[in-house]
Amino acid sequence: DEHSTMQTNVTGTHFLLAAASQIVPKVKFYFAASSEMFGNVLEVPQTEKTPFNPRSPYGVSKVTGYHLVRYYRNHPSIKLFAVNGILFNHESPRRGIEFVTRKITHTAALIKHGLAKKLLLGNPDAKRDWGYAGDYVEAMWLMMQKPKPDDYVIATGETHSIKEFAEAAFAVAGLNPAKYIVWNNPADIRPSEVHLLIGNPAKAKRVLGWKPKIKFKDLICMMVESDMKLVAKNT
Questions:
Q1: Per-residue pLDDT tens for 42-84?
Q2: Which one of the listed residues 21, 35, 36, 180 is annotated catalytic?
């Protein structure tokens, strides 16, 4: 809920930063910032200089954590090596089933094996900048290797709709999406949907030498094939 989100991302982050600065001041600290901080986006695509405009308690908590990191990094008597990784949506076969991408790939596998009949989804036009989590972890590691700490947007620079993702996933599973997917299910409509989230990773490419390796459709294939194996194993 809202309170636990704030406790984790604000209070928890503050405790860790304070402890690090007092006990292990030479430690390197990474904060998992989020594209949700941009919320109702004020420019497209989003960069490290785009103003934040969060639309959820989660987004608000991440903005606060982001500023705590910058405070501990820039304070003249602290100067902690602390970075903000502003990661856009990063997916993999390990993604929790409560997230829409994994919900799609896992349900497609269930339907293929005769264990489910329909996939209920919300707004088909909602768009995100989806990348592969493995690529993004590499970016996180690269940030920590630089001589000076800084903040980086990590994204693919591409945007795709939920409908694109679902249709591609069902195609990989050999299923007709029109037959099995129910759109605009009231329970799956987000009350405060964010606008067009698409990141510009130019700084990460320039400073870190980073760029995503796994393409959108390859990511979907990876996730569907993993869930097909998982469902087959458990049936």
A1: 999 999 999 999 999 999 999 999 999 999 999 999 999 999 9
A2: 36
Which one is catalytic: 21, 35, 56, 58? 58
pLDDT of residue 188: 82
Strand partners of residue 83: 30
2 is catalytic: no
Sheet with 81-87, side-by-side order of all strands: 28-34, 81-87, 151-154
pTM of the model: 0.94
DSSP state of 130: -
**Which residue out of 34, 35, 56, 226 is catalytically annotated?**
34
What digits encode the pLDDT tens for the residues 80-131?
999 999 999 999 999 999 999 999 999 999 999 999 999 999 999 989 999 9
* DSSP string for residues in 27-75: -EEEEEEEGGGT-S-SSSSB-TTSPP---SHHHHHHHHHHHHHHHHHH-
Tokens of 214: 């796994």
Spatial distance between the Cα atoms of 32 and 8, rounded to a whole number of angstroms: 12
Mark whether 48 is an active-site residue.
Answer: no
SS3 content of the chain, % helix, strand, coil (to 5): 50, 15, 40
CB distance 41 to 200 below 8 Å? no
Examine the residue annotation and report whether 158 is marked as an active-site residue of this protein.
Answer: no
C-alpha to C-alpha distance for 130 and 16, rounded to whole angstroms: 29
